[in-house]
Design brief:
- By secondary structure, chain A is of the alpha/beta class.
- Chain A folds into 2 domains: 172 residues, HUPs (Rossmann fold, 3-Layer(aba) Sandwich), CATH 3.40.50; 93 residues, Pantoate--beta-alanine Ligase, Chain: A,domain 2, CATH 3.30.1300.
- In chain A, helix 3 links the parallel strand 3 and strand 4.
- In chain A, helix 6 packs across helix 7 and helix 9 runs antiparallel to helix 10.
- Chain A is globular and about 55 Å long.
- The first copy, chain A, starts with a strand and ends in a 6-residue tail after the last strand.
Chain lengths: 284, 284
């Protein structure tokens, strides 16, 4: 595995692979590599001749009062893990490689970016799509891998790829969980032992909503209420949102249908956690 | 020459050329092909194995009170001219090929888009950059050709290419003029005989500013005033702006230096015309 820090050198390598007919799979990450990332890398390895993993904590997707400064960084450990997984290039740019002082152009994600996560995190998805577009241009992937846990991000990246006709296939991959059900996330590292013990409540609440749906409950509000009530029992936890939406509209449907999503965001202490369930699907 | 109307088919052709190592030159136009466009195509022919000309009147770059409906359309004549020039593909999509009903993602050009043309035409450059990015993705050009007449457009496209690291070389080409100096523009067709007779005043005003600069006048405001006074003598003409700016900042410099620009926009009757001069350069 080679580590490339220069965006120009990364693009040169990617264009050379492309000219040689070699397909690149890209796994964009903010580092703090965990089993969720590892599953994306494994899939990318199976489906592409070359695999690039980017490790870049993207300042543009953090709000002014968010955890940019404290976001977990563990580059040497990440490097060792990615090398073990057989990654070809670890792309690890400094901030000024991606955003030089003259940087001005951004992606405007449109109205979907103002809902759910976007309502709580203004500007977040503009930052996400801007860096994803740039990573696509720099690494020229045939396929790019994103986790289902960040489902709105996945849907917005898909929307951008469709709208701009980027020649990239966006592959959504199932959420990887701890044995007790907590979705893998770099932010889990922030949790105290007590919070960590309480955190599986997110998955439990979603699972019970999924079971209620299977047993015939199709009113979105009823399922949302059930999730809120379950989460309300957890000390030190505040629900940001718990909302059912359709993947096609990002709006709450009249009645839940297979493929609809229930997404939640909570603050457990000062740590923001998100998770979701797709109704009528096995991927939980 | 083949005519392609489907964006997917165009992209497939472009990716096939790319895989075969053939370089594409793109000339994006809104049709009503004139000698200015023809000079871009000739240059593209010289520098690339394949030349694609797009003809697409982009609704997103027109404001609600602008001339989208009346913009000159002359597809059969354009097709014949482009065929004569040896173009490989004329890409001629309908609006729903570029903007299907689900279209939401746009390019946000940042603060440069709010100056000069952008001040008079809010949203114009977001529309321009969005369609240019999409045309780049669909036609996969190695080089793309833009006229110097639309200088702010040229600078904003260059900014986008730099910011997103698009693997495209943006080639700016000199303004082509009528024998009396009027810059070629599809909108010249709107002019009445009297307006057409008066229209060379734009170029004359710019030329005299350029001469004043050569003779030692370096105060931006003085040069702007001189241009405004000259244009003020033309009946039925209203100056929108006449402004000196530096290409690096789009701001008025303290003193004019070689490479700085004086750009003007006027309304001659109901027709909006723009032109510019680069100080200390031969391209006028």
């Amino acid at each position: 595995m080679i580590v490339i820090e220069s965006a120009a050198a990364m693009q040169q390598q990617a264009l050379a692979w492309r000219a040689a007919g070699e397909e690149v799979g890209l796994v964009p990450t903010m580092g703090a590599i965990h089993a969720g990332h590892q599953s994306l890398v494994s899939r990318a390895k199976r489906e592409n001749q070359r695999v690039v993993v980017s490790v870049f904590v993207n300042p543009k997707q953090f709000g002014p009062h968010e955890d940019l400064a404290s976001y977990p960084r563990s580059f040497e450990r990440d490097r060792a893990r990615l090398e073990q997984l057989g990654v070809d290039v670890l792309f690890h740019p400094q901030v000024d490689q991606i955003y030089p002082p003259s940087f001005r152009t951004q992606v405007d994600p449109g109205p979907w970016a103002e809902r759910l996560e976007g309502r709580s995190r203004p500007g977040h998805f503009a930052g996400v799509l801007t860096v994803v577009l740039k990573l696509f241009e720099v690494t020229q992937p045939k396929r790019a891998y994103f986790g289902q846990k960040d489902i709105q991000q996945l849907l917005l990246v898909r929307q951008m790829v469709r709208d701009f006709m980027l020649p990239v296939r966006v592959v959504g991959c199932p959420t990887v969980r701890e044995p007790d059900g907590l979705a893998m996330s770099s932010r889990n590292a922030y949790l105290t032992a007590e919070q960590r013990a309480a955190a599986p409540a997110l998955h439990q609440a979603l699972t019970s909503a999924s079971e209620a749906y299977r047993s015939g409950v199709t009113h979105p509000e009823q399922l949302e209420r059930q999730v809120r009530e379950r989460l309300g029992q957890v000390p030190d936890l505040a629900v940001d949102y718990a909302q059912v939406f359709s993947e096609d509209t990002l709006e709450r449907p009249q009645q839940v249908r297979p493929g609809d999503v229930l997404a939640i965001a909570v603050k457990l202490g000062s740590t923001r956690l998100i998770d979701n369930v797709v109704f009528g699907a096995d991927r939980l």
